Predict the 3D structure of the following.
Amino acid sequence: MEKHSLNGTLIIFNAFNLILLGVLLRSGMQLFPILLIMLLSTSLVQFLTFRLLNRQYREIKDITEKVSMGDHSQRVPTLNVEEFNELGLSINKMLGRLDSTIGHLAIHREELRLIVGTIQDALWSINSEGKIEWANTAFAELFDLYDETRMQYYWEVIREVSLLSYIREFDSSSEHRIQEISLAGHTYLLSGSQNPDAQRMVLLMQNIDDIHRAEQMKKDFIVNLAHELRTPLTAIKGFSEAMEETADQQNMRYLKIIKNHTNRLINLINDLQTLIRLEQNYSINLQEIDLVTFFDNIKLILDPLFEDKDVELKVDIDPTHPRFCVDPFKFEQIFINLVENSLRYTEKGQILIKGKATESDLTITINDNGSGIAPEHLPRIFERFYVADPSRNRNSSGTGLGLAIVKHIVVLHKGTIEVDSTLGVGTTFKIVIPANNAS
Ligand SMILES: Nc1ncnc2c1ncn2[C@@H]1O[C@H](COP(=O)(O)OP(=O)(O)OP(=O)(O)O)[C@@H](O)[C@H]1O
Ligand SMILES: [Mg+2]
């Protein structure tokens, strides 16, 4: 097709008008007819230009309208005004890109549909009105009332009150949340994520029965093993103590080593049992205690440990609010573990327990001027079996369960525990328990 530019066409039309004017002026014609002829000629030029532009514009408009209706196969044909033709080419290029993006998205969507369909866990999406947008086969199998041909409200399909209240809680929170729930004798991990752009929430319910069973087996195994080991260890400890009475110096040294290692094993078994009992028994037995008396007792229990060391244990309790609700037996364990740690890593100096209760909470700090903990270990010391730099304390290091137990008890009281430590300067643990700590 022959193409010409808009500018070129207008120049030709205007040149034609000028030549016509020159010819008319030379012919000696009167001014009025000349003006009339020029007016007619200009109008004709304008009309032809407009018609040309309009035809090109319509061609493009028709195509874009069809595309907007969803017919992406349309393309703008070659146009004979160069500027419009370039516009048409750009539109065709854009449509080509759009086509390939849509093609990719369709492939991804199909892949996702296959994955979601084959997942064994129930997966579904809820819109802002509370209607189920889509759900996978596992969801349909779990909830009989689900009918994929209708847009149902989730409360029409899910009838379990606990699950409904969890979904409502998820709905009101903007963050990603995970919650363990029990449903018809099974345990599930329910996780919900918000998609604020689409105003939807995606929920996943994972059956974790197997994980629970395996965890229970592990715990039972530890409890049984601990039980079986306790009797022989007590016997070894008892007989080695008895042998100390008649042993010579060399054997005395060996017996001491046997006794130390036996004590370590007995402590490990005790710690493991305490941790498992804490995990199995979520409830705490809250009682109002008198803080001053409670810490006096703690001091009495711990004082014997300080006998052979050049370290002093000090307790400073603010008596303004003397009473607070805690589980006294579990609470005691916290201070025994923390003070034992401080004592283990302090050669000389003091360990200070400071406590202050208010209307709203109880804050206790345990501070020592011992070896301190290197910053890289700090984030992990509350993990089970984590021993910071065991080589440093090969003889004195424990099994790394003490702080895990402490943390567990603090969490059972709905409290928090923080640690602040500087190598060579000392360590401070800070515990805050809220007054409304009832579970
Ligand atoms: N006051 C402290 N000063 C220096 N290091 C500490 C202190 N408290 C804890 N740690 C470090 O944190 C680690 C974890 O402590 P945790 O009480 O859990 O275990 P443990 O004392 O080694 O063993 P367990 O308490 O089971 O006998 C310890 O091994 C030690 O390295
Ligand atoms: Mg410890």
Remarks:
- The chain has four domains: 6-102, 119-207, 212-280, 287-434.
- The chain has a mean pLDDT of 89.
